[in-house]
Amino acid sequence: MAKEVVVIGGGIIGLCTAYFLHKEGHKVTVIDKADITFGASFVNAGYLTPSHIVPLAAPGMISNGLKHMFNSASPFYMKPRFDQDFLKWAWYFKKSSTKAKVQKAMPLIKDINLLSRDLFEAMAASGELGHFHLERKGLLMLYQTEKAGAYEQQVAERARNMGLPVKHLHPSEIKKIEPHISINALGAFHYLCDRHTTPPQFMSRLLKYLSDQGITIRKAEEVTDLEASDKKINKVITNKAMYVADDIVFAAGSWSAVLSQKLSIKLPLQAGKGYRIDVQNSTGITMPAILMEAKMAVTPMQGFTRFAGTMEFSGINHTIRKDRVQAIAKGAARYYEGLQIQKEAIDGAKCGLRPVSPDGLPYIGRSTKYKNLIFATGHAMMGWSLGPATGKLVSELVSDKKTAMDVTAFHPERKF
Ligand SMILES: Cc1cc2nc3c(=O)[nH]c(=O)nc-3n(C[C@H](O)[C@H](O)[C@H](O)COP(=O)(O)OP(=O)(O)OC[C@H]3O[C@@H](n4cnc5c(N)ncnc54)[C@H](O)[C@@H]3O)c2cc1C
What we know:
single chain, alpha/beta, FAD/NAD(P)-binding domain, 9-stranded mixed β-sheet, 6-stranded mixed β-sheet, 25% strand, globular, binds flavin-adenine dinucleotide
């Protein structure tokens, strides 16, 4: 049965949800408080990462965070604050950072990533969005120290055991696949399963496709309240209008917890800020790479090279910390010999907020408190990769169909 669905949020998750809901024959309205041209879904590194099987909440991360707490240029930063929601989230994060929990999360992360990557491929093959940038070169994990190499060796072994193809490369082999620029690294692990894209291009193509299909997209309209009774949301209220729908999807990224509070739901979620620097002049970089010690990403996108990084927990704000942006530029220069990142590129840096759940798994599922509410958020560092899979799973939940994979572990009311 065709339903009327309101999707709150027009980032990658909201737009992919609209895409798959439309395919299922539902009538969709997407509402976004902004103009859908900036934020996490535009500034990200564009990786589709089945390789990222280890969640952020892993052993050692809390002590790492504490170590860097007062370093304004570190790639991982938790601003000390006595905010109850943050403290609770940090406690859940700590509880999730055990070997056993990571072990349990890894196959789920791999499965949803592979599902999503295949859906990206299907979207490309369908030609519906026109041609969009999707490259199949895999991802390099470049390391400069034996310690980082040994760590990645273990991750690579686990990935291989889970059926993901990974090759180890010596410097001469790195040179062969990245011939136009000299890389200062002891070696690399090459995850052949990964892909990369150009996010602003994909977002604008998807937005245009959805509009052409007659999906209502309300920009610059903020959901300010929700009215509910008898375990059902009756009205979605914005600063401009009021909507009634059969199902409502919360895909509001880092703001999903704020939205949930309007229904007295406590969703453990924190914003993890990251930055990007786009370099328009030719860099010679053709392979996407993670610079392990610098904890940053480099992506050759269509028309420019993107340098992205930092995970900064300092609440919901878009303040650009220049020292962190500088650290990204300096980090890149330590790996790529002769790389020039112009001042104007650094000055033009932008940031976005990753919606981070405490255990590294997204929130995808129907609320038990409000029967017409579905959550689609909390994807942290993998929201770009997981857009299509999330959209598909949500569309199946709306249609009361068997989901393409088991979503029990992603339930928004799970215990930590
Ligand atoms: C630097 C950086 C690099 C990254 N690299 C990668 C990567 O390589 N691969 C990967 O998979 N992921 C990556 N990510 C993560 C990924 O970008 C995010 O997880 C993803 O974009 C989140 O998408 P979203 O749709 O949930 O949220 P958003 O893109 O933040 O969208 C949420 C939308 O909701 C709207 N909204 C909020 N509240 C309301 C309201 N009340 N009413 C109406 N609208 C509202 C907002 O305006 C916003 O447009 C990266 C992130 C960053 C910052």
